[in-house]
Amino acid sequence: MSGPAADREVATADPAAGPTEWGDGLVGVGPWELERPGEPRPTGDRWDPDLLDSGDRRNVVDRYRYWRREAIVADLDTRRHPFHVAIENFGHDANIGTVVRTANAFLAAEVHIVGRRRWNRRGAMVTDRYQHLRHHEDVAALMDWAESEGVPVVAVDNLPGAEPLETARLPRECVLLFGQEGPGVSADARRRAAKTVSIAQFGSTRSINAGVAAGIAMHAWVREHAANGRGDSY
């Protein structure tokens, strides 16, 4: 079943969040009274009165319709995956927004931005509001943090001696590190990373977009550690 009636049924049932939500192309819902005529208006800390009044057209799954932002983040925090994503930003990389958006989709623990603090948030499509972000001044600071947390860093770059991602075993708890567009992972990052993995390519280009590479690597982690179809890591 699809359409507004199905949306009401899903929202009313408040199902457990799954790995994918299929829709009919219409994003969001209108005011509560129009969507659910005759149903009592919900109360409680998780509900946003303004969204209940005016509708909710945010880029969130239906489970979170009418929820406050803080309530959504708190719920995501109960089931985040134990992998982190880091991207070097020494050249003001335009791919960071895409990386953040993808990290939110795969429910990464945190996104670490190494280098410049400022980045173009347009590509994140406001998903940065729901994704934990951490800044590090340089690679050394990121590596020191990872070592203090006992989390190995896996660099993703097509370099001599790199292990093919297609056959590599990724640690369940890890940091997937990506270099900026063009130069790739910095020499310091390669030197201190626990391992480096590469993504197989078969065409004429020397490299693929950093945002695309991040999505491929995150999905490889999901296939290995969250392949039960519910988004729950083993």
UniProtKB/TrEMBL annotation:
<feature type="region of interest" description="Disordered">
    <location>
        <begin position="1"/>
        <end position="50"/>
    </location>
</feature>
<feature type="domain" description="tRNA/rRNA methyltransferase SpoU type">
    <location>
        <begin position="83"/>
        <end position="219"/>
    </location>
</feature>
<dbReference type="InterPro" id="IPR001537">
    <property type="entry name" value="SpoU_MeTrfase"/>
</dbReference>
<feature type="compositionally biased region" description="Basic and acidic residues">
    <location>
        <begin position="33"/>
        <end position="50"/>
    </location>
</feature>
<dbReference type="InterPro" id="IPR051259">
    <property type="entry name" value="rRNA_Methyltransferase"/>
</dbReference>
<feature type="compositionally biased region" description="Basic and acidic residues">
    <location>
        <begin position="1"/>
        <end position="11"/>
    </location>
</feature>
<keyword id="KW-0489">Methyltransferase</keyword>
<protein>
    <submittedName>
        <fullName>TrmH family RNA methyltransferase</fullName>
    </submittedName>
</protein>
<keyword id="KW-0808">Transferase</keyword>
<dbReference type="GO" id="GO:0032259">
    <property type="term" value="P:methylation"/>
</dbReference>
<dbReference type="InterPro" id="IPR029028">
    <property type="entry name" value="Alpha/beta_knot_MTases"/>
</dbReference>
<dbReference type="InterPro" id="IPR029026">
    <property type="entry name" value="tRNA_m1G_MTases_N"/>
</dbReference>
<dbReference type="GO" id="GO:0008168">
    <property type="term" value="F:methyltransferase activity"/>
</dbReference>
<dbReference type="Pfam" id="PF00588">
    <property type="entry name" value="SpoU_methylase"/>
</dbReference>
